[in-house]
Amino acid sequence: MSGSNQPGLISLFVLLIFAQGCSASSLSKNSESSPSSDTITYTAPLPKVSAGGHHTCGVTGAGVFNCWGRNIEGQLGNGTTTQRNSPVVIDSGTSYSQISAGDYHSCGITTAGGLKCWGRNIEGQLGDGTTTNRNSPVVIDSGTSYSQISGGTSHSCGITTAGVLKCWGYNYYGQLGDGTTTQRNSPVVIDSGTSYSQISSAGPHTCGITTAGVLKCWGDNTIGELGDGTTTQRNSPVVIDSGTSYSQISAGNYHTCGITTAGVLKCWGYNYFGQLGDGTTTQRNSPVVIDSGTSYFQISGGGHYTCGIITAGGLKCWGRNIYGQLGDGTTTQRNSPVVIDSGTSYSQTSTGATHNCGITTAGDLKCWGCNDYGQLGDGATTQRNSPTVINLN
């Protein structure tokens, strides 16, 4: 959770957030995740995209980093705090392999394994040992090679190439998982001795998957977002859905979704806007199967909505839709998955606070939803209720 949200106000904020506008401060998890299985044939290196709070970052198939949208905190990384309505190249000359746009900051991993972050840093979420905002990429945890990074609202977590999980930033709700509630301005090892394959940082909670397929979550649990059957805060990782092997996890805004190694989609937590996709608006404190009988290979939980890709490549979204963030051409809330951009095959989707982006198997980047800060990247600030093609540099 961002520093502007005072401890103890989560429940009140959740009750009021539905009344906020498109440009309201978000509490979403926004990170680029690789598909959990290679079920779709790719003909060339595809771009990647990560939708943040009110900005977006993308990497071309050649590794060129682009960002666009809100930039008040320097989260675009182009050395300014000027809003951009179209993609601009970041860290020119450096090739990137992975990206994560948090709510107010961004991080990326170079093809050499180096980790860099930039943007808002008053909660130490950049991990450079300071609380100074950075308008350009700075090296984090120098000398350590990373394979994955996930930026949340005010904390970040990454996995080294050796499988070591590290987290840093705001920790009032135990979202770092180090057994404390102490803010960390530099990366600290989490769950020492356990090897991780995937991590997802949200606002006040975090979830990760070990290399053995075990799902663990920690942090705030006010609305059952950890999925352990309780609403008790956890300051250290706890096993979720014991006995089930997971291949992918996405921590959203007070809800979480994961895909088992068998392709079964499960979600849990806050469900006021139907973001769990179980056809109800009932809170779930434990994982429930979503879209039974359909096999999924990628999932992304955003502000109060969720999008996923089935193994055949079709894109589905559900939940809050007041800003067209589902992309079904309407602003109607959906409590169950609905097909988006019918007939188009997708390889990746990334949900932000109130906008969404996806990569088709043909390599096209498409974005839709709220666009008040130019976060869609189409050169305008007009809301889009259906996917719109965006061109990277």
Question: How would you portray this structure in words?
Answer:
The chain is an all-beta fold and 393 residues long. The chain has one domain: Methylamine Dehydrogenase, Chain H. 2% of the residues lie in helices and 42% in strands. It is built from one helix and 28 strands. The strands form seven sheets. The protein has a four-stranded antiparallel sheet with strand order 1-2-3-4, with no helix packed on it. The chain has a four-stranded antiparallel sheet with strand order 5-6-7-8, with no helix packed on it. It has a four-stranded antiparallel sheet with strand order 9-10-11-12, with no helix packed on it. It is globular.
Features of this protein?
Methylamine Dehydrogenase, Chain H; 28 strands; 42% strand; 4-stranded antiparallel beta sheet; 393 residues; mainly beta
